[in-house]
Each structure stands twice: as structure tokens, then as C-alpha cells.
Design goal:
The structure is a single chain. The chain is α+β, with helices and mostly antiparallel strands. The chain is built from nine helices and eight strands. Strand 4 and strand 5 form a beta hairpin.
């Protein structure tokens, strides 16, 4: 499976995996366990061997919203906290039991500081994805955003709860189920037409 986050396909993260495996230790996070909490400076980062995590925020009304996901064979971190040493803007929570090679974040910060081209490439790739995501919320309907998510990650419903998918798409669960039902009816109708 291609990486869930587009910017991960644009950067060779083998350096990250190697640092984690060389200097880190293999740890297991249980479903629902926090890897990091908003407001903390990230002291550890990792490489996901199996499982997945969500990045979430709590909005001004107290509602928790998923704003990102990361799965196996990907870095586990928050680049804002790693590169700038600032407090985490999000919580990172295990979606399922997950194995992660953990390393002190300073190893990764040091590697990025020693390679300005890599650091700049990472920042550019992340900016491009963030900007594209922002524009997508204006240019694409909720149905189109749902379909784009399915195209990018066909197994998303096996990995992530419907509630998290809905908040990630910035829609209600009711809207998500309405879209799913409409898509199912269209698929069924198309199959029926092919049988005739």
C-alpha cells in the first residue's frame, strides 16, 4: 500500500527507520493508548512496524476530531515538534495494538539539522500536502472527499472507526452514512445494469 500521507512518498524516510532501529527499542502501544499529548514537547519519535495511529485535536466545543492518520512502515512523530522543538499541537493515539521502534527525538532532530536539503525537502513536501488538503476542503464536495479517501486508502474502514473518518472528512457521522448508503445504491444499480 502506498503511504497514507502523500508527503511520505516524496521523502526517503529510510534514514528515519535506520535511526529508530539503531538507537531505539521496540515498544507496543495498545488500542486507545496515547503516544503523545497536545501541549507536550515530543521527547520520542518512532517507526511504525505494525498498526496505526491517529492525530487528533479537541475543538473549542470539546469535540475530538481526527486530523490525520499514519500506518505501518511510516514515521510516528509530529514534525512541528521534532524540527522546532515546540509543544505538540495534537494528540497521537493508537488506533489498534501497534508495534513501534521508539527513539529519542533528538536523534532525528540532529539528523535533520545535519542535512538541510533533507529538512527543506520535508518541510516543502509537508507544506504542499497541507495546502492541497486545505484547498480540497473548498474545491471538493464531501462526497468527493470521501471518494478521494477511499481511493487513497481502500481499507480505511478496516483500520479506522466511522467516527474518526467522519471527523477527518469534517462531516457528521450521519452525513458519512448517507454518503456510504448513496454510494452502495449507485454500485448496486451499476451492477444491475451490467447484468441486463
Amino acid at each position: 500500500m502506498a503511504q497514507f500521507n502523500f508527503f511520505e512518498d516524496r521523502i526517503d524516510f529510510s534514514f528515519w527507520r535506520e535511526i529508530c532501529m539503531e538507537h531505539g527499542e521496540l515498544c507496543t502501544y495498545r488500542r486507545g493508548e496515547y503516544f503523545a499529548r497536545a501541549g507536550e514537547v515530543l521527547k520520542q519519535s518512532g517507526w511504525i512496524v505494525s498498526g496505526g495511529f491517529k492525530h487528533s485535536i479537541t475543538d473549542s466545543s470539546g469535540m475530538v476530531k481526527a486530523v490525520g492518520f499514519v500506518f505501518a512502515d511510516s514515521p510516528l512523530s509530529n514534525y512541528h515538534s521534532v524540527i522546532l522543538g515546540k509543544a505538540m499541537p495534537v494528540d497521537i493515539i493508537a488506533l489498534e495494538n501497534s508495534d513501534v521502534w521508539l527513539v529519542k527525538t533528538h536523534y532525528l532532530r540532529h539528523a535533520l539539522d545535519r542535512n538541510p536539503d533533507l529538512q527543506l525537502g520535508l518541510i516543502r513536501a509537508m507544506f504542499e500536502q497541507c495546502y492541497d488538503t486545505l484547498l480540497g476542503t473548498y474545491r471538493s464536495s464531501k462526497e468527493e472527499r470521501y471518494q478521494q479517501l477511499l481511493n487513497r486508502c481502500p481499507r480505511i474502514f478496516e483500520l479506522v472507526s466511522a467516527t474518526d473518518i467522519a471527523t477527518y472528512l469534517n462531516i457528521s457521522r450521519r452525513q458519512l452514512y448517507r454518503i456510504i448508503n448513496t454510494q452502495a445504491k449507485l454500485t448496486w444499480a451499476a451492477r444491475a445494469d451490467n447484468v441486463k
